[in-house]
Design a protein that fits this description.
With 294 residues, the protein is mainly β. Helix content is 0%, strand content 43%. The chain has strands at 11-15, 38-41, 49-50, 58-64, 69-74, 79-83, 89-92, 99-104, 110-116, 124-130, 137-138, 146-151, 157-163, 170-176, 183-184, 192-197, 203-208, 216-221, 226-229, 237-242, 248-253, 260-265, 272-273, 281-286. A 4-stranded antiparallel sheet has the order 3-2-1-24, with no helix packed on it. A 4-stranded antiparallel sheet has the order 4-5-6-7, with no helix packed on it. A 4-stranded antiparallel sheet has the order 8-9-10-11, with no helix packed on it. The chain starts with 10 loop residues before the first strand and ends in an 8-residue tail after the last strand. The relative contact order is 0.16.
Amino acid sequence: ALLVGITFAVFLMIMMTSMFAGILNRSSSTVTNIGAKIWVMDPDGQNNQPITQSPSDKHNPVWFRDEAKIAYRTNNSELWTVDVQSRQETQYLKQFGVISNPEFLQTSDDVIFVRFDPRLSDSTEIWKSNMDGSNSVILTRDRLPKFEPDLSPDERSIVFIKSEPDRKNYHIWQMDANGENARQLTEGKSFDLFPHFSPDQKTVVFASNRTDKNYELYTLEIESRTLTRLTREPGLEGHPSFSPDGERIIFASNRGGNQQIWVINKDGSSPQQLTFDQEESIDPVWGNPKEGTK
């Protein structure tokens, strides 16, 4: 049985130089390779361990089903997995070209991802496919930039970021897992980023520059559309993610200088810095609590 509580959660971090590198131009075929690696550590910041050794930069790490593997995209937007024990790295879905933001279903062999249309300079759609590339389905078809889909815990809903037609503002949208019933959740003059469901699926945590043009963390109550600001720091805050019990939020921030991993309570209180490296750390992702793990 799974043990409930943050004590037994682990998460990933990526060592790299910029929190928002590639967000505005994910379709670039090649960017400077700085050798960002995926690391695993305990929720208190202890026992840091590098998982990948290959020279390519890594982004968007996610646990792959039973946590035996970690999936990620490279700086050239290729989808790979790494076996946590053997450290073997394997590429998937080569036939789809430039892809990013993988989200794996726990109940099937399907993966949801963002694919760039090679015919257009700034058009992306959200797809679903088996890991071997079969049974592929396009979930969105409006040719507007979209990225960062997050699948709800019950796998019935997806939140994602989508631009306005003028490409000046980017907001959170929600749709059914089959692509139907798309609806806009946030609005206004803002660039919203990194949406992530709470375990009870009632709330989304995200980063936005909507208040003072500085990226801060917010929560959105989906039913009431109530926004709550969680952070008020001069630096950039991003990549938020709820803990498995829903009580804490992990995120990346440069409030202390360079990007490091921090954690707060779900109401924004009790900030705690977890990493203190000379290199920068971003993209934290909680693991699921498992019996016998720390």
